[in-house]
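Researcher: Please translate sequence to structure tokens.
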Amino acid sequence: MHKKLLITALAALFAVVGAFAGGGALERRAEAALCPGVVVNPENGHGYQAVAVPGGITWPAAKAAAEALSCAGEAGHLVTITSANEQNFIGTNFPAAYGTASDFGYWIGGKRSGAGFVWVTGEPFGAYTNWNPGEPSGDADGALHFFGLGTNGRWNDAEATIWHFPGYVVEFPLDAPLDSDGDGVPDATDNCTGVANADQTNTDGDALGNTCDPDDDGDGVADPGDNCALVVNAEQANLDGDALGDACDPDDDGDGVSDGADQCAGTPAGVAVNANGCSAAQLDGDGDGVSDANDNCAVTPNADQVDSDGDGIGDACDETPLPLPTSQAYCMKGGWQQYGVFKTQGDCVSFVATKGKNPPAG
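Model: Translation complete:
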């Protein structure tokens, strides 16, 4: 039978008997039935496997080996036995794990911690135990195994790094939420189901996390060509032409003075600047909005630049203004005459006699 059809049939069978719930878990448990050596426990839906190790293995090595195994997309761990039914299921399906009349049994997932024991998964220890009489014996680095030697599955603690037992029992918790990429975030809530991204960073808040989003900031410019991949900047403005767009560049004009301290943003490339980021042409000592190079009062604010006498020095700072031409005598110099009422005090006009007529008296 085709594998997919078989998985579907098994999932349907599990659903009929009512042992399992949850669509994703159903299919994974059905698929687990096809994992070599794995047997699914109908009571809790977990998969189990006994692994023989010729020559023996220590508990730390067994733990690492168990966690390196997977079935139906679920990583394994040394078995944790929390009920008599689970204990009996293991003994029934994997009798070799219990050992023999002359040999010890396999490692399981309990380990000493302080004065007590813990399961490798963090599940509570002690609700169910199956110690061999006189155990635990108090080994400082004790780890659990089936004692064997004809004790029919009783537990014993032994020094984890010293003893080498003939195998270990693995458990696959197939009822756990599916996590295809193994990042600790279930597929149902993972914004990158096929790529590990435990932090779930998602700059633009769309359905895809940054790890798998082709446009992290959602500005319409794909990340490979975006000069600010994490800051919206659809226009891609880049004043200094470097690798960073203005939206994320700490020094937009590239003058060596960061934007936060730059008093003259937008300095042309290659122009020398002072510590404040200003070129000679941009200096504005009085802060009136007129650069010093064009300011007729460079140290006195005068945004209007009024210069009444036209001497090149603005009224705001002109200490010796030129006299305004207000008298007839002054205007008469050079042939000028004062005439009538003028728009501005000091305005003068010159009259030219024509056809023998003289201009009117001033």
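Researcher: Any highlights?
Model: The beta strands are 39-40, 47-57, 70-71, 74-75, 77-78, 107-113, 116-119, 142-146, 155-159, 165-172.
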